[in-house]
């Protein structure tokens, strides 16, 4: 179900629970600002979610309100996760769904990282 990302941050969302350790996840990478773990319902051979540790509902919220060091730490984490999987050469895809048109389902910013296979058209038709 798409969610209303104009609402305030909900501390009970599933990724907040993962960050607190209330729900289990497999850590792929972590730095001061970001946490990366496998998507529970992978859409590609490699499907990792990278989330900021801060309380940001969406890319919109994060890009408007996060401190520069949080943004840098998060973006660097995404790049590190890709390099951990040797994806710089073969390439990969990053996706951040935002709001109803984007199909965002979890109200905590997350970037999907897909790879280890050709990924086809950018948007399904
Ligand atoms: P989005 O539609 O962009 O909001 O994506 C939400 C993603 O979160 C989906 O790809 C789900 O498979 C994934 N997801 C939901 N719950 C979990 C969980 N407990 N652990 C890992 N991934 C999850």
Describe the structure.
Helices cover 28% and strands 18% of the residues. It is an alpha+beta fold and 125 residues long. It has a single domain, classed as HIT family, subunit A, CATH 3.30.428.10. A 5-stranded antiparallel sheet has the order 1-2-3-5-4, covered by helices on one side. The radius of gyration is 14 Å and the shape is globular. The mean pLDDT is 96. The site of adenosine monophosphate has 12 residues, from loops.
Q: Class, according to the CATH hierarchy?
A: Alpha Beta
Strand arrangement, largest sheet? 1-2-3-5-4
Along the chain, the helix and strand elements come as: HEEEHHEHE
Overall average pLDDT: 96
CATH level-two architecture = 2-Layer Sandwich
Classify the secondary structure makeup into a structural class.
alpha+beta
Q: Give the ligands present.
A: adenosine monophosphate
Secondary structure blueprint with pairings:
Blueprint: H1 14-20, E1 29-30, E2 34-38, E3 46-52, H2 59-65, H3 68-84, E4 92-95, H4 99-102, E5 111-115
Antiparallel strand pairs: 1-2, 2-3, 3-5, 4-5
The structure holds adenosine monophosphate.
In short:
This protein is α+β, with helices and mostly antiparallel strands and 125 residues long.
């Amino acid at each position: 179900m798409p969610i209303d990302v104009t609402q305030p941050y909900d501390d009970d969302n599933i990724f907040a629970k993962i960050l607190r350790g209330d729900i289990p996840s497999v850590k792929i990478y972590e730095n001061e600002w970001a946490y990366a773990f496998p998507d529970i319902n992978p859409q590609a051979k490699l499907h990792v979610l990278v989330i900021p540790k801060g309380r940001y509902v969406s890319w919109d919220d994060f890009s408007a309100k996060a401190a520069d060091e949080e943004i840098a730490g998060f973006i660097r984490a995404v790049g590190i996760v890709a390099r951990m999987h040797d994806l710089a050469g073969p390439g990969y895809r990053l996706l951040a769904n935002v709001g109803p048109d984007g199909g965002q389902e979890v109200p905590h910013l997350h970037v999907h990282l897909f790879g280890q296979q050709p990924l086809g058209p950018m948007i399904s038709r």
